[in-house]
Specification:
homodimer; 36% helix; elongated; four-stranded parallel β-sheet
């Protein structure tokens, strides 16, 4: 293997998670181990910053700050939802890379980001510019193929399982046979996150909350749901429902939009939780419905992150650097689960092009026949991902999180219009 | 002082908090110290359970469970919003007390509950039945008079300050000058809770999130808020707004209801957050608005409770028992802050009748002139209340909370129609 001497560029892309910064920390820490790596740069706001040559010097950050990244939510380098489309954008990225002798590019993100990374890698090859591109998986949606699970998922699910268990204590105290409590969680197209709230149930207590999990994979059937709610209210005196924001009816229409036009003439609604609330209040007139919508809270709740998730995100960052140093290119780091009963994980690699075009669906056979709860196969899959707590430092009663100095790297190219 | 020998009854009332069970734990633990106290009963679901003679034997619970109550959210005895009104209801309560030789009644709750406790105490006196009634303060709303602050408030505010700081990390990463993030918090008539999110700001960083706190005390002025949002977007590239659910306009109408009828013809809306979102999207067309509505999560998030709050809730429970044993009656335990710079707290007592009829407002002079932030007087008041973290035990990645056995006390009276 040739030793490729040059600089590293790290970028973060897409929606933040509780652990995307842990991957940056892993990359920076590992990069320091390799003499072939000269400078360690971060690109601000994903590809947007790269296009605009907005680079910062990560090696000049204090070790304290890099270490603190391990437990800091958000995306410390900034992120974007900008998708490179024009050929000239890709050309510009390479121009920036060449200008700063970037030879190692690590891009932390979901499908779209891996797609971008793939195209950059291929263009470099075409142009004969030696560049090693390794993607690092990140998404609370847990929908990347080729990897057992995605960093970010364990923490969102741990936080929501905790929250469901806590709200259940509150609901149980208040329930007089009429209390319906709805928690709307993220998940536009897949129910991975909603399904994960099943971890709130104690082992061998199937009647624990959440009583009904409404997944985007299961078309919403109003009469069945109302029947389910009535049954649970009778049994438990309250009914806690987790609903994925992307819940759809049999025709594939979002519940929110649907309810808005059909039942109440609204132009828009708060979301699936609000829509479901109205349906239940109409269908079960004595019901008292409360809706919680954690929104961005769920993906930023780093104080309640899964230690397993944080450690794996860090590990994925380290593995990306090692793979690149070993000569790998155009790959994404994957998490590979061991075969034994006892949960273990190793990293692997998969071609970026495969990751970019796939979506991992929640297996239908992991949903129980009642269509509102998850079976042991799902629990066996998800349970290990939420294990362990993170010791976040507190100052004056509130967690303290990293703030990078972001010392700018001098620009050498003309400005670029995005 | 006469030694009054007999049984204890504890009840919980109104909305749960993260620490209302800590007060029960304090009462039970302290009751065990006094030989005059024979049995320790809990009334299920507040006065509802007392009316129906639904009592449980708290002394038969394991010490583990009583200890676990200290960190368990919800209300382990159940609670209710039922308000005693009819004279016959009060008579029935005394009948139940007499039947079970209840001589010590501890009622944990807010204004209404203290009012109920007051009336029970006075009726017992009228009837010559020796009974000592001590109220224990509880409310996230922090609106009880006579006490420096209320158990429950510190924890809701700590959780929300943490959440605002975490969401701010996420928002900062995504903000491109157009991101408006709204967190709707509880508080129908007073802004104590919304104001408390000011604790998310680092010391000497007034520009930290939350950028705008919209309090029920300050009538909503659409143009000013839009102007404020535009200014913050320019400065910070994102704008995080905390809005109290009870935000009202200059005529005293709830923002939610108002927006619903005037601007969009909706019959109802999700709440102040949704209403504000629509106003901002209309007034600032390029704004991308995200709404989080923690709902019940905020008052149940015991994993993020304030240790100070938990300890004080426990202390208030202990103090109630000691006061009753010492011969006090018809009083509520209060929290009295020490005069020194270093925060200290002692318990005191105030007449129930005073508590029942008062409401403590957020002082106007604690709101800055900009009307959207809190000054140092508020911070000095609130900062000590969120100090310290609670070591909640985890099992399989999720906190474990107490579950009482609730061994029923035999009924001796005829059934009663509520």
């Amino acid at each position: 293997m040739d030793e490729l001497v040059g600089n590293v560029l790290v970028g973060q892309s897409g929606g933040p998670t509780s652990v995307i910064n842990a991957s940056v920390a892993g990359i920076v820490a590992e990069a320091l181990n390799h003499v072939a790596i000269e400078e360690i740069y971060g690109g601000l706001n994903g590809v947007l910053g790269i296009l605009q040559e907005d680079l910062v010097d990560l090696a000049s950050e204090s070790q304290q700050q890099i270490r603190a990244l391990r437990h800091t939510p958000g995306a410390a380098l900034g992120t974007c939802r900008y998708k490179l489309k024009r050929q000239q954008d890709f050309e510009r990225v390479l121009e920036v890379f060449k200008a700063h002798n970037i030879r190692y590019f690590f891009y932390i993100g979901g499908n779209d980001s891996q797609d971008t990374a793939d195209k950059i890698s291929k263009l470099a090859k075409e142009q004969g510019y030696e560049l090693r591109v390794i993607g690092v998986p990140k998404t609370i949606d847990n929908d990347l193929t080729g990897t057992d699970h995605c960093p970010g998922y364990g923490s969102v699910v741990k936080y929501l399982a905790m929250t469901v268990r806590e709200i259940a204590c509150d609901n149980e105290a208040m329930g007089q046979g009429d209390l319906v409590s709805i928690v709307e969680v993220m998940g536009r197209s897949a129910g991975w996150i909603a399904a994960g709230t099943a971890l709130a149930k104690r082992r061998d207590h199937p009647h624990d909350a959440p009583h009904l999990i409404l997944l985007p994979e299961v078309p919403f059937a109003q009469e069945k749901v109302l029947e389910d709610v009535r049954r649970v209210l009778k049994r438990e005196r309250y009914c806690l429902i987790v609903v994925a924001e992307g819940l759809v009816d049999a025709d594939g229409n979002y519940l929110a939009a649907d309810s808005a036009t059909d039942a109440f003439g609204h132009a828009r609604l708060g979301g699936a939780g609000e829509a479901l609330s109205e349906i239940i209040e109409t269908g079960i007139p004595n019901a008292k419905v409360r809706v919680a919508r954690p929104g961005l809270i769920q993906r930023a709740a780093a104080h309640a992150a899964s230690k397993t998730d944080v450690d794996e995100a860090y590990l994925a960052g380290q593995a990306a650097v090692r793979a690149a140093i070993a000569g790998e290119n155009d790959k994404m780091v994957t998490l590979v689960r061991g075969e034994t009963e006892h949960y273990t994980v190793e990293t692997g690699l998969a071609p970026l092009s495969e990751i970019a075009n796939g979506i991992k669906k929640l297996p239908r056979e992991w949903i129980n026949e009642d269509l509102v709860s998850m079976n042991f196969q799902f629990l066996r899959y998800a349970q290990p991902l939420i294990q362990g707590e993170v010791a976040v430092p507190y100052d004056n009663g509130v967690p303290t999180y990293a703030r990078l100095d972001k010392v700018r790297v001098d620009k050498v190219l003309p400005a670029y219009e995005v």
